[in-house]
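Why this split exists: single-chain examples teach little about how molecules sit against one another. For that reason, every record in the complexes split bundles all components of an assembly together and asks for one structure covering all of them. Below is a record exactly as it appears in the raw files.
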Amino acid sequence: MAGEVAVVGFAQAPNVRRTHGTTNGVEMLVPVFAELLAATGLSKRDIGFWCSGSSDYLAGRAFSFIAAVDAIGAWPPIAESHVEMDAAWALYEAWVKIRTGEVDTALVYGFGKSSAGDLRRVLALQLDPYLVAPLWPDSVGVAGLQARLGLAAGLWTQRQMAEVAARGQRDVDELLARPYVADPLRAHDCAPITDGAAAVVLASAERAGELCARPAWITGIEHRVETPNLGARDLTTSPSTVAAAEAAGAEGIELAELHAPFSHQEILLRQALGLGERVRVNPSGGALAGNPMFAAGLARIGEAASRIHSGAAGRVLAHATSGPLLQQNLVCVMEGR
Amino acid sequence: MVTSISEPLSAPLDVGFDYTRSLGPVLGRFATELREHRVLGVRGSDGRVHVPPVEYDPVTAQPLTEFVQVGTEGTVTTWSWIPEPLAGQPLQRPFAWALIKLDGADTALLHAVDAGSPQAMAIGMRVRVRWTAEPVGGIRDIECFEPLDAPERAVAATPEPVTMITSPVHLRYLHSASPEESRYLRGLAEGRLLGQRCPACGKVYVPPRPACPTDGVPTEDEVELPDRGVVTTFCVVNVPFLGQRIKPPYVAAYVLLDGADIAFLHLVLGCAAEEVRMGMRVRAVWRPRESWGTTLENIDHFAPTGEPDAPYESFAQHL
Amino acid sequence: MAKQLAAVIGTGQTHHTAKRQDVSMAGLCREAIDRAMADAGVDWPEIDAVVLGKAPDLFEGVMMPELFLADALGATGKPLLRVHTAGSVGGSTGNVAASLVQSGVHRTVLAVAFEKQSESNAMWALSILPPFSMPVGAGAGGYFAPHVRSYIRRSGAPEHIGAVVAAKDRRNGARNPYAHLKQPDITVESVRSSPMLWDPIRYDETCPSSDGAAAVVIADESVASGRPAAWIHATAMRTEPTTFAGRDQVNPQAGRDAAAALWREAGITDPLSEVDVAEIYVPFSWFEPMWLENLGFSELGQGWKLTEAGETALGGRLPVNPSGGVLSSNPIGASGLLRFAEAAMQVMGRAGEHQVDGARIALGHAYGGGSQYFSLWVVGAERPGAR
């Protein structure tokens, strides 16, 4: 259908605890681009629009993203943009760009070398700079506040949190015997610090069929943000996710990739989205298996789309988050035909 | 010759600045009242009293101006336990983060609770403000909260209007060089200038690149370059600035080494600044060998060779 | 899908100055937003989405400030995007907001950009020295001065051209109630006698450090019809690598490509005669002639002749930066959106004392990084194709 956009390709760098690469992501991105272009049969000159997501504070340098375009070999000059957000929002910008009719393909990428700094402290700088950030509330301690609210309200248990982390692969009792990192969170409840990169190719209805045997058609993509005041939010649910999902038409979902950096957030999102027992959640392992900052949300979209590409699923939901305690959320619904 | 792979180099990168934040009328009033040991909230469009105060209503986005004094005691709505505090946090012994709803407030404030152990923490527990002995203006004038049964400590207030806060942001990173740059840096440590050629366009890059900027592939074939070249263009830095490492005035010049296809920025000394010219031939002046490390700083500066200037056409495409 | 028409229906900006210590970052943004929304005659329920632009987060020491600003931006419960394309970001913010309307996704979008430079020190943030490197970098001026020298050598421009630009822009700034620097009495001679900071760039040829914000409301045809509007005729963004062998740093290909795409989309074949006024990102005076050439307003090497002949002054063939431009106000992240907003104000006839008489077609231009990111738009008093 005219105006429609599909995900036609996805590639990602290995999710690892630490790379030797630079903070501008070039070493991770070069092979990812090569893989993605080979899979779609495109050359860099065929790409109508490039859009990326990354963070200067992750790298500890102003303009850290500008060196990343070297990985593209951006010559002749390219049509390009960048968001200082998870690259899922770069995908949103690219989706908009294709819908203007100006371009028919876009390559979206995100990268983050989370290991370069002290991530728990760096993320404190996302909080209100006047009354909150001066206390340096670390991201894990703040997540613990949310986890306990749900525990106290009976929305989840520590065992259920451990089960999310275990994914049937690890002994839950053994996990529960381990010490707290930030009571009520244990290490398994927290996404690992991960270096990585991800990239996705989008195409218009006119091009998608020739680039991918079974495109993942985006039937809805929406995002919403909530107030920054943690103490004024209902932290046991995610109104912005619910609103985005409603606007995106999230019905009939078979499989969901949820960007939940903490185990309780996967349960929270599942409840908020009303994903029943039949919906398969995070077959990729989700952010708990690898959380490359500023790429992990885009990777959820890519992972969900790849289940359509392979024929394993017909209608999927991908979710991405930004900010402290799920402050900002994006929902992308895709289907195969 | 293909470059051998060895461990890339890395080194600490400290990024620190004491940010100066102007508070505006709402947050300024809150901070000022804190110095007098009073906590102010602001009433929202839906009647809720927001503590800490917010400048704009989360529902209507309208500016909020109706201040409401609330209590200095309150109730913990949730908490987490920090067994190993991080730099900059309110307490440097194990403590709890908590959302605390002060008496009279409808929203909760994030702060630390000095409770001694997680066993002493509970949702619904009553806490009170512990004021800092040395107020600086701002949220850290609340040193932390403490359980109501803790002995109270007398601290004198120091009333003065607060319009600004200073917010130190100091972070430590590990900066890594790419494998290609690392090879070049190790060359520098031996007094050699090692470039690499892009396998696609054939251009010689110094320093070599993890991705040729025009082709997106790593540079590969090593090319040893002489420590002589030409000044393509330059400026004279006369302005002092925070963090500057070379005393102005100095000449910052793009030096194109003979055989390289890209210039790099370096210092030119050895003649008066006004004698430096585009096209001037220069050579590296190395620091004493015993001070060499894996850095371009091994070359102290470039100095004129006295050779005739290179013709403009020979470097015009490098501007 | 056919591209929808989009138009600027309101603009707003702060009083820019070195230190806006009377407001927080939220208050700074709202000063611009409130003016833009009043100018557009819209209220919060009509705003479908918000786009925030800002240069490096290290300038304010806040990671992704759009998060803590959500309430102040009126974005809570709505879509919020944060754009960052280096110094061109203000322009990109306008273009991304425009695309949200042009795609048919939203009807009315608020674009905001700000910088509160007084929270830290931009020279520091831009000169943080990574390990292993040579500490010769000296902020943006140190970066661009050698390329200015290259331009002078290449074009043969006389030495005083930079001063002509600076004196013109600062005098223009004196007509702009929001400008940071207002210097009605500045002269070419006084600029030429100001201290040399980064030779060949003098003190008076350098942009100030400003706190400030800009906002525009962009709407679709159904909302914009019947209102004062600046119709968006074309947008373009192009990027090239910071450095590469043989890169032309004086006349970057990305800028030329962006301009070519822009003029093509706008149906403009002779920019100098068809464009009535241009707001061009000129942080150092010499960039006026450099960008005049890069944008195709003159032949290569001839841009300075337009400047020297007074053609870029108010009353000339192509007034450039009647607002005073970046040389008069530089809240970095907002500077590009200010160019875009000022272009819109001109074709809406709302530029007050610095209005170019009869302006119908205007250019907004921004660039960033090492002259490698370009964002442009052309706005017109009438719908595209109506000329």
